[in-house]
Amino acid sequence: MDNNQSSSIENIYNLNGKVPVLKAIPFGLQHILAMFVANIAPILIVAGACNLGAKDTAMIIQSAMMIAGIGTLIQLFPLWRVGSGLPIVMGISFTFVSIACVIGAQYGYGAILGAVLIGGVVEGILGLLSKYWIKLVAPILAATVVTAIGFSLLVVGADSFGGGASNKDFGSVENWILGTVTLLSCIIFNIFAKSYFKQLSVLFGLIVGYIVALCMGVVDFSALSDINLIAFPHLLPFKMEFHPDAILAFVMIFLVSATETIGDTSALASSGLGRDVTHSETAGSLACDGFVSALSSIFGCMPITSFSQNVGLVAMTKVVNRFVIATGAVIMILAGIFPAFGAILATLPSAVLGGCTIMMFGTIVISGLQMIGKCGFSQRNITISALALSIGLGFTQLPELFAIFPQIIRSVFAENCVAVVFITAIILNLVLPKEYDVLPEAVDVLEKNNFF
Question: Going by C-beta distance under 8 Å and a sequence separation of 6 or more, which residues neighbour residue 444?
């Protein structure tokens, strides 16, 4: 092996090193395979809640692939102050699934897009101005919000597992078989796969579940009729609607998403580059999330944000080269130009998707709990996390508790546990004194029992 070739291989682990295209593509493709299921899952779930047809769903998936690729390129190679310059992969966010299902069922898909447009611009501006407010987002706040997101999505995964509550065959034997086979396939692959192949367990489960669904004859191929070989995503494919309560709800969740992005950006710099994240990187990452989400809505798609799955992949492989990740982004853009790809993905039965997402959503819960553990179990942190989760998860199980509030407040908070958790945690973080902590004697006892 000559020195140039050795240098090229080593550059895969350098942020700005030169890597030959043929060596870069497999690693870039790996990042796309690690996230593409999670990229389309929110679309399939929300499209089902909004009663969109197979063709509309396929069109949204097509747009999502292209916008995710564009967003990733902007993160890698910033435009002005938009973008972090870090190897961050972008995709459709699960964070917005719960509120999107509520808004979509109430007003339709157009109201979601209108709210995403406004909310994205708000987050983008806040990203550019982040130096004025970033200190408000304490680590325990971000950790608690991530935990709440995981819990809020469990019922969404269960709904998909059963085939979708709006379908007449919800909870049927066929759906139970598909969901169980898919889930078991994910688990078995994760147990026996080696190295980074473990990251593909969801993809493996999806393939197995889809094959079983084909054998059972429950796959709907209507979306594949009259599909063009090549087509570009459409501008404004749905008429946008602007409802104040929907906009307020999405702006609130964009703030929640911002805390996740801060955590992802920090984790990537720490685990992938071995250093602390800079303020300009955090600000650029937030601005990219916001403005690309606004662009996404113009193409009929949901918000785009940084993907935690890929942060974990970087932490494991240490592959941080921007050009390498860019090859994956280009692959996503090319996939968005071929609508048949999106149409095929749109034929996934809900139960197969549910078998995959149950595992994914549970992982989000555990990730949040791990983040809480890293923050430390001081009395202050315990109070913030415990009270925010108790109020957010508990109160929203009984929407009638919010009956005394105006309609706009009920629309945003009554069934949105993530928003309630976020607001509660923010307030507690502001009002609880910094010195509010356990007694020194209690700390000694906990340390002796290896709680810290």
Answer: none
Give CA–CA dist 278/271, Å, rounded.
14
- In this predicted model, what pLDDT tens digit does every residue of 126-152 receive, in sequence order? 999 998 888 888 888 878 887 887 888
Q: Is residue 346 part of a domain?
A: yes
Residue 30 token pair: 């790996």
Number of domains in the chain: 1
Q: Which residue has the tokens 């808004």?
A: 103
Which of 31-35, 200-204, 284-288, 334-338 ranks highest by mean pLDDT?
Answer: 284-288
Going 248 to 150 to 31 to 356, the CA torsion angle's sign is negative
Q: Is 405 domain-assigned?
A: no
| CB burial string 255-271: b at 16+ within 10 A, e below | bbbbbbbbbbbbbbbee
| 61 part of a folded domain | yes
* pLDDT tens-place string over residues 186-197: 899 888 887 656
For residue 213, what are the domain limits?
18-376
Neighbours of 392 (CB within 10 A): 27
What is the rounded distance in angstroms from the CA atom of residue 55 to the CA atom of residue 41?
A: 16
CA pair distance 212, 216, nearest whole angstrom: 6
- The two structure tokens encoding residue 154: 């469990």
Residue 397 included in any domain = no
Pair 149, 97: CB distance under 8 Å: no
